[in-house]
Structures are given as C-alpha cells and as structure tokens.
Input
Amino acid sequence: MIAQLQAEVIQGPLEHERFGKALVVRPTVETVRAHRFPSQAVVVTAVARRLIELSREGEKIQSVVVVAGSQDPTCHPEFHEISENIRELQNKHFPRAKLYLVSDVPHLELAQTRHALSFYDQPNVRLEAGTQKVFCALTGEKPQVFKDVVGLLPRLGNERLIVQASFVRGKIDNSKETEVRAWIRHLTSIKPAGVRITTPAKPKDKQRRPITKTRMSEIAELVTSKTGIPVEVVS
Output
C-alpha cells in the first residue's frame, strides 16, 4: 500500500512546458483515509528513492516541481519539513536542477508555511482576483484565505516569487477594469519578481469564458505601467 501511495506522490520525469524535464511531487494526494495526506516520511522517501534511481541511471532532470494533489501543497501539515528535505535531496543528487512550487490556493496562515517558500528557487503562487468576492467565486475558498494571501504575501520578501493569474469573463469576471486595478494594487504590495497571465483556451463553463487577446495585452500593459513588474502573457 505504501509503495502504491509513493507511486502516486511521484510523477515523471516528464517534459513540463515551463520547467523542462521535471520530476513532479504531489504531497497532498489523498490516502485511503479521506482527507488524509501521506506523511512526511512517505513523501520524502518516495522523492529520495526516485532521485537516487535517476542519478544511478545517468538521467538528467532540470527541475523538481511540487504541485497539488487533492489540495494545494501548502495545505500539508508537514509542508515545511517536506520542502526542506526535498531541497536537500535535490541539492545532493541534482545540484544543477531547480526546485519549483506551484500553489493555486496558498494557505499562508502558519509562519512555518511562509518560511518554507524560501526553500524554492521559484515559488509560483496564483492570485487572480482583486476583491474578496471574486476570489471566493473563483476558488470556492473562505474569505479568510483571501485576507491571508493579500495580507501575508507582501511580508514574505521573496525576490523569486512569481504571481500567476488566469483571466475570465462571464458571470464570474476578474477582467473588469475595477477588479484588475484592485488586483494590481495587491501586486504593488507583494512586489513579485514577475507576473504570468493567461486565459483558458476554451470556456470552462457558462460562467467563465476566455477574455480576448486585446484585453490580455491591456492588462499586461497596465501592470507594467503601474508597477514596473515584468509580465509574461501566455496565449
């Protein structure tokens, strides 16, 4: 059972569109017990075994990427310990590789979780709403999560942080001018190293449809003019 769980925790190496040849780690896959995650020992052992195997086989990887399983990776109660151990293992076996975090709904209320982001070469955090109402509509999360994200991200002082945002229109719309300007005010406080914006290729549902390329360009230009932060537009 543990071997099967470890196989679910680790994926790859696979070709990632952003991070090259990557080993993907999912610390929050669900165990047979509902709403329970694999322990730190299970996750770290799985990563260690796979990295050792790849090293012995002469494989080359460019990155280790920590992503969500059933929930955001920052929801794992041992996220700090997992991040620290993966950093040490990656440095030992693949010192030229980079360690990335992809967090769609970061839970930053714990100081140790915020500190864990410092282990990553590039934490990628999703924030695509300027207001609490739109954030909750997009994510299904409680208002306190939004307050934590916009209140605590500026305190990280992480010069490698990337903010990701996917813009949609429809019943749920985060591309309106007032919403975008509120979002940009948060970026001004957070001071990320960069911003990456995109829109779905196809409608997700009747409530959320892609925005136009013109609107994407307008948002990117507004971010740059107001903050000076570099923006990558992914179409």
The two ends are 41 Å apart (CA to CA). The domain at 1-109 is CATH 3.50.80 (D-tyrosyl-trna(Tyr) Deacylase; Chain: A;). The helical segments are 2-9, 40-56, 79-93, 111-116, 132-139, 143-152, 177-190, 213-227.
